[in-house]
Design brief:
mainly alpha; Amino acid/polyamine transporter I; 19 helices; 77% helix; globular; binds 4-fluoro-L-phenylalanine
Length: 456
């Protein structure tokens, strides 16, 4: 049952912004966004993406932070409190915790690769490749080795657990205050390197010149889904981080900063990758293999590439780590708030259980590769269920909850707390936001959902 435990808060407004931006900025920004942009026309995809961030990302991040901050609870406790313990909404809160658990289990496998690749870069392995197929073969032989895959996965989980273990201020906030600035600095260094190569025009025009002919209705849905995943929406991560936010702080400006940082990192990552990639004569449409198959070759062909390769994989690992921390925090907050567990116990038990759940994902690239359901291996299956089912259903129901159950007055009243002067000036903002949450988000998310099930 609901317990009134003394809960920690962020030490500062910037602490929340960096931690929440840390959750948002992840593999989705540096690994997935560039390859999606690469496959879907560059500049046009970037514009469609920005549009999606504004119409779906911003309203929904406000909604999630609002629910967390109003209740000071994890997803289950938050919906129990606001719905007067309605079983449906309690169950829904639970879905968020389960989604956190399942995403963490496979996301950390990929995150583990980034650690492994830091060492590959240090060893100078990339210099023995001459073609992307050499890099791809090497990647397949590493991930095909169960010991390599499982060890880096467990190492990454232990890193994640060590931050969450020390709590909101001393673990997550302190870690984010160190890791996020470092991440921005590395990204800027890589950006400058890429833009100062010879022959960057091809890459730049790919990212700047609009070509609408490649944009189809499906591109919008792809961009919407990506905006959603990238902003960590739909499973209570922003809700949980919002629950540690001070009532005096503005949801409007903090949420806006998080969204802006997230979109900027995705776009800057594309600018750090494509000009360099085109400059050495490679193709932008390598898909998911872009980072592990194509980039290693790009680094061997650029001046100082040895160091830039190391920096790039450190960048990826940092981005992933601040995201996995937020996933583990959702689960931890549930057991601390609702079950009265100590944080340390929750982290050790659920960190270990996540490792157990993740092992079949790590083995999907080797010993379990033939174990498939509907032609998806375990890793793909967990990814599919989490990203294509849990997250859209989560986002849809959060909009429905605010738009139809919590209602306009109560929602806007809570949103205004800490943003009084903003609402004095832009008194219409609450109405517009509520309109998006009540009508626009549910419809768009529903379409994304149908699309990801392959129904449209
Ligand atoms: N936003 C992260 C990324 O772009 O990689 C992924 C993620 C983290 C999704 C945390 C959901 C979440 F709760």
């Amino acid at each position: 049952m609901l317990k009134d435990v003394e809960r920690e808060k962020w030490g500062s407004r910037i602490g929340f912004i960096l931690a929440a931006a840390g959750s948002a900025v992840g593999l989705g920004n540096i690994w997935k966004f560039p390859y999606l942009a690469g496959e879907n026309g560059g500049a046009a995809f970037i514009l469609v993406y920005l549009f999606s961030v504004i119409v779906i990302g911003l309203p929904l991040i406000y909604a999630e932070i609002l629910i967390g901050r109003t209740t000071n609870r994890n997803p289950v406790g938050a919906f129990v409190t606001l719905s007067n313990n309605h079983p449906f909404w309690r169950l829904f809160g639970f879905l968020g915790v389960i989604a956190g658990f399942s995403i963490l289990s496979y996301y950390s496998v990929v995150a583990g690769w980034t650690l492994g690749y830091i060492f590959e870069a240090i060893k100078g392995t990339f210099y023995s490749f001459s073609l992307p197929t050499d890099a791809a073969n090497h990647f397949n032989s590493l991930t095909g080795n169960p010991y390599w895959n499982v060890s880096y996965f467990i190492l990454f989980m232990l890193l994640t657990m060590s931050f969450v273990y020390f709590g909101v201020q001393k673990g997550i906030e302190l870690g984010s205050k160190f890791m996020m600035p470092l991440l921005f600095i590395i990204l800027l260094v890589l950006l400058v390197r890429s833009l100062t190569m010879e022959n960057t025009n091809l890459g730049l025009s790919f990212l700047i010149k609009l070509d609408w002919s490649v944009v189809r209705p499906g591109t919008f849905l792809l961009a919407l889904g990506q905006a959603f995943f990238s902003l960590s929406l739909g499973m209570g991560a922003m809700l949980t981080y919002g629950s540690y936010m001070n009532k005096k702080d503005s949801i409007i400006s903090s949420g806006f900063s998080v969204v802006t940082l997230d979109a900027s990192v995705a776009i800057l990552a594309a600018f750090a990758i494509f000009p360099a990639l085109f400059a050495v004569g490679m193709e932008p449409n390598a898909g998911p293999g872009l980072v592990f198959h194509t980039l290693p070759i790009v680094f061997t062909k650029m001046q100082g590439g040895y160091f830039f390769a190391i920096l790039f994989f450190i960048l990826l690992a940092l981005a992933a780590l601040t995201s996995t921390i937020s996933l583990l925090e959702v689960i931890t907050a549930y057991f601390v708030d609702e079950k009265g567990w100590s944080r340390k116990k929750a982290v050790i038990i659920f960190g270990s259980l996540t490792i157990l759940l993740g092992i079949p994902s790590a083995l999907s690239f080797n010993v379990l590769s033939n174990f498939t359901i509907n032609s998806l291996n375990f890793f793909d299956l967990i990814d599919f269920i989490s990203s294509n089912i849990f997250l859209p259903v989560g986002g849809f129901l959060i909009s429905i909850f605010i738009g139809y159950f919590l209602g306009k007055e109560k929602s806007i009243e809570n949103l205004k707390q800490g943003s009084e002067s903003f609402f004095d000036k832009y008194y219409w903002f609450g109405n517009i936001w509520f309109f998006f949450i009540r009508f626009v988000s549910p419809i768009l998310i529903f379409l994304v959902f149908l699309r990801s099930l392959g129904l449209i």
